[in-house]
Backbone:
C-alpha cells in the first residue's frame, strides 16, 4: 500500500472529468467507477462523491465513511490533528490530488455531544492551489458547497484557527455542509 507516492489519475481522470463535466451541467455530481482506480485515487473519487448533497444527515454519514476509508488506507491519521467545535481536521499524509490541486486537509463536522450552537453536519477539504480554481468552483456550485480562496496558508490558518505545516502558496477550502446547502 503506497503511503508516500504521488497519486494521479492521468488519462482516466481526463475521461472522468469529461463525463463529470457533462453531468455537472445537469446539476448532479458524476458517478465514478471507483474500483477501476488505484487505491489513493479511489479514496479521492469516493471523497468527490461524498460531497454531493443528500437528505440530512446524509452528507455527514457519507463524509464519515470516506474518513474511515482514508484512515484504513493510512492516508490520514486515526485521530484528528485538532477538533474545533464540532469539526475534526485531518492532515493528509500522502500526496493526493483533488481536481488538479494538492489535497492537504480533510474536515468532518458532526455532533457526538452538545457543545453549544450550532452544528452543520457534512465535511470539507483544504487544497493547495495549482492553477485555476474553475473546476472547484463548478463542483461547489453543482453540489451546493461553498468555496473560499486564501492568498496564503497563514490567512487560512488565521481565519480557521487550525494550524499545520504545509508549503507556502495559495489555498482554498471547499465546504459541503448543511449550512452551505442553504446559500
Residues:
Amino acid at each position: 500500500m503506497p503511503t508516500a507516492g504521488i497519486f494521479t489519475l492521468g488519462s482516466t481522470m481526463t475521461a472522468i472529468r469529461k463525463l463529470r463535466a457533462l453531468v455537472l451541467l445537469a446539476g448532479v455530481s458524476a458517478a465514478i467507477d471507483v474500483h477501476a482506480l488505484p487505491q489513493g485515487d479511489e479514496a479521492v473519487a469516493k471523497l468527490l462523491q461524498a460531497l454531493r448533497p443528500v437528505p440530512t444527515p446524509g452528507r455527514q454519514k457519507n463524509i464519515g465513511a470516506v474518513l474511515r476509508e482514508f484512515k484504513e488506507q493510512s492516508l490520514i491519521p486515526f485521530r484528528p490533528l485538532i477538533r474545533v467545535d464540532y469539526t475534526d481536521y485531518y492532515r493528509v499524509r500522502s500526496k493526493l490530488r483533488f481536481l488538479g490541486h494538492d489535497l492537504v486537509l480533510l474536515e468532518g463536522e458532526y455532533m457526538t455531544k452538545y457543545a453549544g450552537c450550532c452544528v452543520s453536519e457534512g465535511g470539507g477539504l483544504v487544497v493547495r492551489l495549482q492553477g485555476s480554481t474553475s473546476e472547484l468552483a463548478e463542483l461547489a456550485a453543482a453540489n451546493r458547497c461553498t468555496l473560499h480562496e486564501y492568498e496564503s496558508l497563514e490567512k487560512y490558518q488565521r481565519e480557521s484557527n487550525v494550524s499545520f505545516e504545509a508549503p507556502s502558496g495559495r489555498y482554498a477550502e471547499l465546504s459541503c455542509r448543511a449550512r452551505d446547502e442553504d446559500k
Q: What stands out?
A: Residues 10-181 form one domain.
